[in-house]
Specification:
This protein has 292 residues and is an alpha/beta fold. The protein has an 8-stranded mixed β-sheet. The protein has a two-stranded antiparallel ribbon with strand order 2-3. Helix 7 packs parallel to helix 9 and helix 9 packs antiparallel against helix 10. The protein binds iron/sulfur cluster (SF4).
Length: 292
């Protein structure tokens, strides 16, 4: 329907959502494991262009229930611009249930509580936050531009303003060397932040980014294998103790095994499933696929 500026990404759970590109690229664009937007320079699209796409979509898909605002960190838009876009969207889609976007911890921390509240009231109610790890050492090695503390702060700030938050973490991001530290610190951050949803992926470096990742890691990177990824998952699930319910999913295609459940009530069942899978490696994904 529109001429999207590719590549275009959205979270798996937004597969059926209508997507408006309100920004192009990522305003940070430095995480060493991510080449989603390396081909684009960050920019904010002209409001009139966005409005004409919203009009077009409203004519063709008036029953839309979910909208995702792309690209990599739409929340970087000035608050007034974001509110103008949301105010334009809302009346044109009477069945709308949710508007969401990706957000970095820095995007959230840059907004005042009042700004976050205004944006929420205007209709953007969910953030997908790539936290990747809770370990400051790893976050620095992958040039994430965040620390465990800034991640916790940003999640709490967003939750205080009413947002639903979904966080992504990456198994294997510290390699073998930092495996334990990665998982223990990530469990601490997830327990403190208690996001509504957590998605666990396994590290998969695309060719265009591998050299940069290895250089920035500043020491030999020893990738974990599927069985170690499962051990990371086991340790992670055992250590997460959130103060509120957290829906946990490790069912992304990059993972060796699909695991899912809700903390705290499904923790034991998830532990048992992981333990069963560890003793049945034949249930692993097809031989030959490796995340790294
Ligand atoms: S992981 Fe997110 S913040 Fe980092 S470069 Fe990629 S899109 Fe930008």
């Amino acid at each position: 329907m529109f001429d999207y500026d590719y590549p275009l990404y959205r979270p798996p759970s937004e597969a059926r959502s209508l997507i408006f590109q309100v920004t192009l690229g990522c305003s940070f664009n430095k995480c060493s494991y991510c080449n989603m937007y390396r081909s684009k320079e960050y920019s904010e699209r002209p409001l009139e262009e966005i409005k004409s796409e919203i009009d077009l979509a409203a004519r063709h898909m008036p029953g839309t229930t979910r909208i995702f605002l792309a690209d990599g960190d739409a929340l970087n838009l000035p608050t007034d611009t974001m509110i103008q876009i949301l105010d334009y969207i809302r009346p044109r889609f009477p069945n709308l249930e949710r508007i969401s976007c990706y957000a970095m911890p820095q995007n959230i921390l840059k907004k005042s509580p009042e700004e976050l509240q205004k944006i929420y009231t205007a209709g953007l109610t969910m953030f997908y936050i790539g936290i990747e790890s809770g370990s400051d050492i790893i976050l620095k090695k992958v040039t994430k531009g965040a620390t465990g503390q800034t991640i916790i702060k940003s999640c709490q700030k967003a939750k205080d303003a009413g947002y639903t938050i979904s966080c992504m973490i990456i198994l294997g991001l510290g390699g073998k060397t930092y495996s334990r530290q990665h998982i223990e610190d990530t469990a601490k951050v997830l327990s403190a932040a208690a996001p509504n949803y957590v998605g666990a992926l396994t590290l998969h470096l695309e060719d265009g980014i591998r050299d940069e990742f290895l250089t920035k890691f500043k020491e030999p990177f020893l990738p974990i294998d599927d069985s170690e990824a499962l051990s990371e998952l086991e340790l992670l699930v055992s250590k997460i103790e959130p103060s509120a319910e957290v829906v946990f999913r490790a069912n992304h295609g990059s993972n060796a095994y699909p695991i899912g459940g809700t903390f705290p009530q499904d923790k034991q069942a998830m532990m048992e499933k992981i333990s069963y899978l560890k003793s049945h490696p034949e249930l692993c994904r097809p031989v030959g696929f490796r995340g790294f």
